[in-house]
Amino acid sequence: MTEGFTECDLTCSSPTPSVETLNAVNHLKLEPEQPIFSVLTGGMKEQERGEAHIAVSHPTTCGATSPTAASDTESGVFSVESELCAEHDFELDWFCGTEQKLICSRCATAGPCREHSVAPLARRVTAVRNQLVDVCEKIQLQALRIEKFIKQTLDAKEQKLQASASRAREQVLAQVSAAREALEEEEQRLLEQVQREAERVEQCLLTQRAHWNNALTSLSQTRSHLVHTLTHAADAQLVTSIQEISERAEEAEGVGDPCDTNQLNLNPACTDSKLLRGLWATALLLGPNAYGSPLLKFDERTVSPLLSLSEDLRTLTFISKKPRQAPPYDPARFDSWPNALGSLSMSSGTHCWVVDVGESGAFKVGVCYANLERKGSGNEARLGHNSQSWVLSHYDLDYSFCHAGKKVPLTLIKRPQRIGLLLDWLSQTLLFYEPDSGTVLYSVTHPFSAPLLPAFAVTDRSITILHR
Fold this sequence. Notes:
Blueprint (H helix, E strand, L loop, with lengths): L18 H8 L9 H14 L44 E3 L4 E3 L1 H5 L8 E3 H112 L2 H6 L1 H14 L18 H12 L21 E3 L5 E4 L20 E3 L8 E7 L5 E8 L19 E7 L2 E6 L2 E5 L7 E7 L4 E6 L4 E7 L6 E7 L3 E5 L2
Antiparallel strand pairs: 1-2, 1-3, 4-5, 5-16, 6-15, 7-12, 7-16, 8-9, 8-15, 9-10, 10-11, 12-13, 13-14
């Protein structure tokens, strides 16, 4: 593992090694996995065993230290100046692992550290150096792995990112371009169709206007002639003019009475487009306003005694047992059916809201006129069973659209956890959809004639009005 190290100069303050020492180092066999300092140590042991320690001078005062120029006999690297034991005046050439301090040989064998974990200083230095070499090698290997990761993985990821982002942009632009092109073509077609229909109705109006203006002129002339005959003709002349008067009257009756027809109105089918309706509905159902106004909540005054309303006025829960104490009387409250109305009146614009139906097995969601009957157990107050309400109903496993007592069965691929409603007043369209997929469950077009309120009913568990 030594090939990963870079060259460096080692400067020592000790004398230059002898020729024999250098020869011994040159003849060492380096193993790839052997720490570098261990190799140097092993090669120089034989050379250093015959060398004597350098004599040191002792201080005159106990505890004082004096410098020496000793070499590290096991590590092969010259050490810094040594100190003497303050108690025994011996060189501090041992290390106490228990107290983590330098000691002398007397301290290690007969002194206070005799029962501690001790080792010769040179051996300890060698171990520390080898450990340091291992740490440096690990750091170098880690650095190599990081460098490899940066060059191979991150660079490749960056190239892949650029390619993926470029493809994604092209895909978005292509899809938007296709949608824009189709929408522009559909817009042009519909506008031309509306223009043709408007020109047709305009021509009909001009024709009718010319016809009835001529008829009005003819009637005015006939009337003027008859009035003149009545006021100016002599009796004998008047009697002999009976035939002419009859002809004039018959001519006037032949003009007929004007009547309005559908030919004089713009045909709404001229704006019918599945593509436009689909794009419009998708933009509303999946857009930022799909959950509607955060002000929409349940109107507390309308909540049936069979239901409980949460403190935030957004969750209705069915009460299996009718409460003993009925709520205060309120003309707006449903007293027999488990119904409740929303707090938002709708008579213009476009409105969306989403209801979390969860695991409820029986509920209704829809709209109704504000004047829907609230009292009694008859169909007049039962959602979907009168001409005042339009609801999507779920009971057990059946889903259906209900209005005026008629049911339209619905086939759903999966049981929805949430149901969204969209009311567009301009097109008089009420649409039920599944928000998670944007799937339209049912839509109805009706000439709504009065403001509408969100309508709800639940006889199993609870339902909640959701807000983003």
